[in-house]
Amino acid sequence: MARPHRNYINGEWIEAPDTVANINPSDTKDSIGLYAQADESQANDAVAAAKAAFPSWRDAGIQARSDLLRQIGETILARCDELGRLLSREEGKTLAEGIGEVVRAGQIFLYFAGEALRNSGDVIESVRPGLDADARRQPLGVVGLIAPWNFPAAIPAWKAAPALAFGNTVVLKPAELVPASAVALAEIIEEAGAPAGVFNLVCGAGSVVGEALLKSPDVDAVSFTGSVATGRRVASQAAAGMKKFQLEMGGKNPLVVLNDADLDIAVDCAVQGAFFSTGQRCTASSRLIVEKGVHDAFVDRVIERLKSLKVGHALGPGTDIGPVVNQSQLDTVQGYIGIGRKEGAELAFGGDVLERETPGFFMAPALFVGARNQMRVSREEIFGPVATVLKAEDYDDALRLANDTEFGLSSGICTSSLKYAHHFKRNAEAGMVMVNLPTAGVDYHVPFGGVKGSSYGAREQGAFAREFYTSVKTSYLRAP
Ligand code: NAD
Q1: Rounded mean pLDDT, 136-147
Q2: Domain total for the chain?
Q3: In whole angstroms, what is the distance from residue 148 CA to residue 135 CA?
Q4: Ligand 1 pocket: which of 203, 227, 446 to mutate (most atoms <8 Å of CB)?
Q5: 172 and 33 share a domain?
């Protein structure tokens, strides 16, 4: 039997007190390996290592940090096929999606290799003659990164790369379901020559490792992506410990389709946004808000497309939609199929659990029609291949429905009208607005995040990531 995978702490691979099997959701007979389950003391060891490594990493200089990130990014890109396959095997997105995500992770490291060199500040003219004032960016210290399972490569990358670029040291806690991609990342960071303690990986339960990071007085900041329920907990613990924190959480993202939309584009956007990656994206288009003149034609065309999609093993040829990530998530999603029907929505397509050659968590993409926005299937994040169609009277009604949600991550509109596109861009209550594009699918160098219940704190990614991973130090100088 293969040796269990270990945690990476202070430049060494350390056995954990416990392990857990990493099971392929496309084939539950396929175990990817045993992965570490740290206890609190191991998490604290990682924090201590990161704390000890911080002063020399802070002072290592921007060239050294840039070189490390470039090396990491190039290795990820060179190994993208193999790493993409591993990702798809443990998470269940299709191979094309897995490889695409790994490429994105590599590009993120390359991008932040550049950003490390662009850490400029301001020189500010003092109101007092003879004084110099400047404001410069400095690292925060030890940053705890808590990641979800649905982007096992990209999310650790978009947190770790800026953290390291700006001189912080890192403890990464990946989601329990996807440790393999995180271990691969730690191996690449080690091979790239990161000094001991600069990057630490602690796999384990959120209630143990995540809590330890939040409790530790030596963790200066926490970047969290995950569910709203956990995010609330992270916020209260981080605030109690006076840590800087940012939260990226769920969504119930609307895609508005107006009468004047190009229907080919609208159907593509809806199917891509709602069902690809098995609908397990925070930016998934889970509410399709369709103006009444085009409603029936749109629904017919979406159903036609759904019929043509192949649900199956993530690594299988021609698979469009892989499995749901595990049994408990499949149960949750199936529960919502029942809830939607009970609430009076009509299940116009799919929703069944599917048998395939391998035992896995497969289900047919599901489309509810005749729904109201007050129904639970229209309000709660389902996080699976389920979309709800809401009929709108006109543009104003569609905008009202789009904004009638506690979330505000991504909001889309399909229209050929400049007037409505422009109005929607300005008035959609969301951190990201998409015109004639799916609500999911973003660039790696552009700020990412939401408003309302979807996000809290500074934006992630792009040049805006610096807001979170640095603080501003103001200095005054008077020459004697
Ligand atoms: P989750 O909240 O269950 O877990 C997220 C992480 O938090 C995991 O690493 C988990 O171990 C950890 N955790 C759990 N309990 C903890 C605790 N008490 N203290 C500290 N950490 C703890 O979320 P998930 O199921 O892994 O991910 C799915 C969710 O993530 C969805 O709601 C999705 O919308 C959201 N998500 C958001 C974004 C975004 O950028 N907005 C991106 C991807 C996923």
Answers
A1: 98
A2: 2
A3: 35
A4: 227
A5: yes
